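Issue 218. Parser rejects a valid record. Input:
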Amino acid sequence: MLPSTVERVPQHTAEHVNAEIRRQTEERVARCAAAGREAIDRRLAELDHEWDIERTLEANAATLCAAGAALALLSDRRFALVPLVVGSFLIQHAVQGWCPPLPVFRRYGFRTQPEIDYERYALKSLRGDFRNLPTSEGDGASAKQVVDAMRR
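Output the parser choked on:
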């Protein structure tokens, strides 16, 4: 059975690495909460530029494929094996959620998009972005209001 898209990377990451990523996220949220609204705004802007693990793997694979192809064309055709191997890693990651570079990047702290979003929405909640939203329990909740609050 294939793992869900949301859980496949954490499932293939050592638990101590997942725990360290969670701990660092919680520390950043607590630090921003203590420092006030400007720190929260600054951190939210930083999160907009953070590369997730998927983007990191894609950039790494594209770089290695291009370099391998260039070396195969300009130097030795045996370098054509590099794009083949890297491409197989990408397929493995797409299907299973694991590939050989994944543990290395996770140890460096690269997070999944849901892990980044967890920090983003914790900070937005602390900033008060969701305070005045109606609930779906009869006070006229509008999907547009909720989506607008998520985008802020």
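Fixed in the parser; the record now loads. The mean pLDDT is 91.
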